[in-house]
Amino acid sequence: MTGNHKDTSITRRRALVVSGGTVAAGGLAVAGFQSAFADTTDSTAADATASASSTSSECMTLMSSVTEGPYYLDGALVRKDITEGKAGVPLTLRLTVVDATDGCTPVKGAAVEIWHCDAWGYYSGYTTANPGGSAPAESEEGDSANDNTYLRGYQIANANGVVKFETIFPGWYTPRTCHIHVKVHTGGAKEDGTYEGGTVNYTGQLFFADAVAEEIFTLEPYSKHTGSYTTLANDMVYDGGGASSGLLTLEAVHKKDPSKGYKGFLTLAIDPDAESTGAGSGGGGTPPSDAPTGTPPSDAPSDSASPSASASS
Predict the structure, then answer these.
(1) SS3 of 3-59
(2) What element of type H or E holds 99?
(3) N or C, where is the chain less crowded by C-beta within 10 Å?
């Protein structure tokens, strides 16, 4: 199934996070943005409950590694909030890393790295890559984001294996369904604001239910990207395996107003002794030949730009 989305926008709502502060721009309410990122329960108690639940039951299936895709960049920053002012529906991710070879015990200190496109389908570092369909140029959004670092980051797992990210719901690009890329590293350490050394144990992608994505894409700024997008059943990477294949559990902040945001949850069951090269199944499009490589520029946002930028451990 494909969707054809025209600019039939609901009230313009937009969220900007500049230097750690949240402001309203074009209508996406500050309260909605903040509530999407707020914990509704005590995080320590919730983490402990989740950990106890996972270790007391039969361990889930080992996650299957897939391709890292063509838009990976080294040197992402260790930070919780990766938005850099990019507009979109708020999304807070709560990921739990467990050892599938040892009764799903939490993997303390694991570094979880994520990266994804913005609401119009553009990746930082590759902002000239055409997302397919019809979309404004990435530069037309007018945000304050650094074009080499937005919507990329690491978090370090706490004692319960939990990391949290504050981001936006990703858009889409041809020929892929809506997704977030993820790597789990162990054995390295935070250095100069990023994560160095160690081993990549898992390379995967996180996916969203079609019904949720379809509703989100009718909202501003997503609705400015029109054309056909790929659903889960037709995606070249998602294999239909549910949670073990990266399908997120999603919880709406406000059931009657999707613009208020979502919370996404998933347990990543890995083998800490394995190594994943990122050359798994599936493709993901081709970046432009002049795309940058290596570490972020010297003027990249600091991991200490706001209180939310610290690791979750």
Answers:
(1) EECCCCCCCCCCEEEECCEEEECCCCCHHHHHHHHCCCCCHHHHHHHHHHHHHHCCC
(2) strand 90-99
(3) N
CA distances from 2 to 8, 64, 181, 226 (A): 17, 26, 22, 12
Dist CA 142 CA 123 (whole Å)? 15
Mean pLDDT for the stretch of residues 132-143: 93
Helix, strand, coil fractions of the chain, as percent rounded to 5: 15, 30, 55
Asked if 91 and 169 touch (Cβ cutoff 8 Å), the reply is yes
Q: How far is CA 293 from the centre of its chain?
A: 20
Residue 151 near residue 83 (C-beta atoms within 8 A): yes
3-state secondary structure 222-248: HHHCECEEECHHHCCCCCCCHHHHCEC
* 23-62 pLDDT tens trace: 233 333 333 333 333 443 334 444 443 443 333 345 778 8
Contacts of 49 (CB under 8 A, 6+ apart): none
